[in-house]
Specification:
- By secondary structure, this protein is an alpha+beta fold.
- Helices cover 35% and strands 22% of the residues.
- Helix 1 packs antiparallel against helix 2 and helix 2 packs antiparallel against helix 3.
- The chain binds aspartic acid.
- Aspartic acid binds next to strand 8.
């Protein structure tokens, strides 16, 4: 028997403290709280980590404050192309999708790949056919669009035209949502979903749907979901790197996560953050950006945070 724990994130694409409007901050906090409650309701009833992370990520995808599902960023062509993955630490089963533009909840499509096919990663129109068979809701591509993200695309294009893309704020550029959990039976699971990077090239796939890079779960060590410059997570195979350090070097969850986020990832030049829960129930939520939308739920307590503060909440 383990103590159930759920951790969530809404991305490390967060602007410096004091620059989000009061309304933007409140909106994001509400989204985090809704997602935490949705995932926690599953764990509290004795449900599986896999169902809890899916429920939390669906709630985050539905919320426009975060770059996943509704509220996803636009690529350079003014379109949405979303990626998602889910992984079950019990048996390393995983499902992932990339380049999604019409499935309302990409994480549900990732789970359908895991449970209804012999494959791990599906892209493009193949996913839509599977989603239709699985009874998932399809929506018009502009259902995901928000004015806020459209404005970000215009700003990114203006900065690019001036050769000034490096000046773009983290929030302008990116974000992701994710959840990790351990359930009462001691099983681990992870789920991640994203719109990727504002103004990305059409067809670009990030770390999120690459098992072992942006998403990873293994009952032997940890469940992990990453956020930040996807290319460096791919190059460092971050999720599997964390697993390997814990499994073969005996590192603690905290040591492995912090060393990568403040060491290798920073050196490679990327804003990065992650959430992870270990098989022993420890949690790590390091980030090297100004903030990270995040929250944790455990028996009797829950909290959400954007910067260094903590707002506690009732989980019922
Ligand atoms: N990792 C995501 C990507 O590169 C973006 C993010 O997490 O902010 O697609």
């Amino acid at each position: 028997m383990s103590v159930p724990i759920l951790a969530i994130h809404g991305g490390c694409g967060v602007p410096p403290k004091g620059t989000l409007s009061g309304e933007q901050e409140r909106h994001a906090r509400e989204g985090l709280k809704d997602a935490l409650r949705a995932g926690w309701a599953v764990l509290e009833e004795g449900g599986q980590a896999l169902d809890a992370v899916e429920a939390a990520v669906v709630a985050l995808e539905e919320h426009t404050a975060f770059n996943a599902g509704r509220g996803a960023v636009f690529n350079a062509d003014g379109k949405h192309e979303m990626d998602a993955a889910i992984m079950d630490g019990r048996d390393l089963r995983a499902g992932a999708v990339a380049g999604i533009c019409r499935i309302r909840n990409p994480i549900r499509a990732a789970r359908a790949v895991m449970e209804r096919t012999d494959h791990v990663l599906l892209i493009g129109h193949g996913v839509e056919a599977l989603a239709a068979r699985a009874g998932l809701e399809l929506v018009a591509p502009d259902w995901f669009s928000t004015e806020d993200r459209r404005a970000s695309l215009l700003q990114m294009k203006a900065l690019q035209a001036r050769g000034d893309s490096s000046q773009a704020s983290e929030r302008l550029k990116h974000g992701t949502v994710g959840a990790v959990a351990i359930d009462r039976a001691g099983h681990l699971a992870a789920a991640t979903s994203t719109g990727g990077y504002t103004n990305k090239l059409p067809g670009r796939v990030g770390d999120t749907p690459l098992v072992g890079a942006g998403t990873y779960a293994n009952d032997a060590t940890l469940a992990y979901s990453g956020t930040g410059r996807g290319e460096i997570f791919i190059r460092t195979v971050l999720g599997h790197e964390l697993h390997a350090r814990m499994a073969y070097k005996g590192e603690s969850l905290a040591a492995a996560c912090e060393d990568m986020v403040f060491g290798a990832l920073k050196r490679l030049g990327g804003g990065a953050g992650l959430i992870a829960v270990g098989r022993d129930g420890t949690v790590a939520l390091p980030f090297n950006t100004a903030g990270m939308f995040r929250g944790v739920a455990s028996p009797g307590e829950g909290w959400v945070s954007i910067y260094d503060e903590r707002e506690t909440l009732s989980l019922v």
